[in-house]
Amino acid sequence: MAHDHNHSHAHHHHAPEIKAITKAFIVGIVLNLTYVFIQIVIGLKINSLSLLSDAGHNFLDVAGLALAMVAFQLAKSKATAKYTYGYKKASILISLLNAVVLLISIGAIGFEAFFRFQNPQPIPGKIIAIIAAIGIFINGISAFMFFREKDKDINVKSAFLHLAADALVSLGLVVGGILIFYTHLYWIDPLLSIIICLVIIVSTWSLLKDSLRLSLDGVPENVDIEKINSVILKNETIKSMHHLHVWAISTTENALTAHFILEENDLFQFEKVKHKLQHDLQHLNIHHTTFQVEIAECNDNC
Q1: What is the pLDDT of residue 16?
Q2: Dist. CA 166–CA 156, nearest whole Å
Q3: 241: helix, coil or strand?
Q4: What is residue 208's predicted lDDT score, i.e. its pLDDT?
Q5: What is the sign of the dihedral through the CA atoms of 12, 142, 74 and 254?
Q6: Which of 22, 29, 173, 269 is most buried, taking the most CB atoms under 10 A from its CB?
Q7: 252, 153 in Cβ contact below 8 A?
Q8: How many CA atoms lie within 13 A of 289 on its CB side?
Q9: pLDDT tens readout for residues 109-162
Q10: Can you give the pLDDT at residue 6?
Q11: Is the pLDDT of residue 230 over 70?
């Protein structure tokens, strides 16, 4: 009975977090979509590649936010007969897709910038600076909403990183716009769009690496195998261990399986330490554990 109570307690603890994150996603999506619309309309009107490439970049982040929100919801999906883990893994595949899409967009922006360098177009720097200043404000607010929860999930973290990078890019555009306004050096516009590309590459690369590793069932970033080994083998009852596997079920949950070798008379003792061991592993970011127990010495009486 007490166990039940414990479970519901843990459940309540997560509910407000999930509500807060979902709200942050929705507000972030609405604010950024509005901004993308403003950037496209004005970017086309004044023929600014830096504004248009930033609009493309921001639109991808909106798509990224929407994907991350879907992933976040899917990660909480219930198990079915066909999908015994639910659709949790979808959250990993989505963050992988997210990174790939961003990298493709960079190619397109870079290509256009190359042509603009050869033939810079006159553009009003003041308008670029004003629009970009709005971007700092919008991305800043959105990023701040994800700041508290960013270490709990790779998708929330990716949303935070994208928005923070966007705010920096907008700051760069403000400076660029002011420079164009005073110097009339119109090649600054395509140069800014190339800098934007570099910012996206840097911020996306680690996301691509992490999500690829999790897709291949690699050990997640937030898991320390050495620590897990020592926590398990600290137990007197466990003589040795093999087949230790750790992998990610979703962007927030990790699983572990291991084979333990015990003395026959330690079996009953192990039942007692098992729950403590599961609890200890929970603190090391392991949410699902499966232990297989084998008896060390097998005499004639097996």
Answers
A1: 54
A2: 15
A3: strand
A4: 85
A5: negative
A6: 173
A7: yes
A8: 22
A9: 788 788 878 877 788 889 989 999 999 999 888 888 888 777 777 777 778 877
A10: 39
A11: yes
Length reported for the chain = 302
Q: Is the Cβ–Cβ distance between 62 and 202 less than 8 Å?
A: no
Map tokens 């083998």 to a residue.
Answer: 233
Other beta carbons less than 10 A from residue 240's beta carbon: 11
Token look-up 């998708």 returns: 155
Cα 153 to Cα 38: distance, rounded to the nearest angstrom: 31
Rounded Cα distance, 204 and 60, in Å: 12
Query: Phi, psi (5° rounding) for residue 34?
Result: -60, -45
Exposed / middle / buried, residue 39 (Cβ in 10 Å: 0-12, 13-18, 19+)? buried
State both tokens at 165.
């990078």
Instruction: Report the sign of the C-alpha dihedral through residues 43, 49, 51, 57, in that order.
Output: positive
- In the block, residue with structure tokens 């509500």: 19
Question: For residue range 200-219, what is the model confidence (pLDDT) as tens digits?
Answer: 787 778 778 888 888 888 88
Mean pLDDT in residue range 10-38: 77
- Max CA pair span of the chain: 93
What amino acid occupies position 80?
T
Residue 129 in contact with residue 182, Cβ under 8 Å? no
Quick check: 40 and 129 in contact, CB under 8 A?
no
Q: Tell me what the mean pLDDT of segment 247-252 comes to.
A: 82
In the block, which residue shows the tokens 């097996």?
A: 302
The C-alpha atoms of residue 11 and residue 18 are separated, in whole angstroms, by 11
41 — pLDDT class (breaks 50, 70, 90): very high
CB crowding 157-172: b at 16 or more within 10 Å, else e: bbbbbbbbbbbebbbb
Sheet strands (E) in the chain: 238-248, 254-262, 288-295
- Position 297 scores a pLDDT of 65
